[in-house]
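pls read this stuff:
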Amino acid sequence: MQEETPTQDYLRVEYREDGAATVNAFNDVLIRDLSATLRDLGDDSRVVAVIIAADGKNFCAGADLDWMKRAAHYSAVDNLADATSLALLMYTLDQLPKPTIARVQGAAYGGGVGLVACSDIAIAKMLGFARLRYG
């Protein structure tokens, strides 16, 4: 029997009978909550693996536009704290003491690519990167 624990509207943890925990879900709140959830799953003896997955057509469209609009007005100190939170999320996933699997459907942009890169295994039909022009 699967046990589902809703933590927020944007993050769901599902404990499966086989010991895997499935995480669904980028803004500042998600980064904070996903980091905490991953730490908890790393310490949870019921969990033998963590699967990062998403509902819907795409794995991750990147940063939430409302979050980006707010971040445009952040001070240098706030921007550094924001970037540090994201880096700590990726570090937490990378260093998790359980195997991590990114189950990717559709597009994965921005932080979603980071989640895939920091997972031990990525399962995707196709994974690509958008080319950006700087300057």
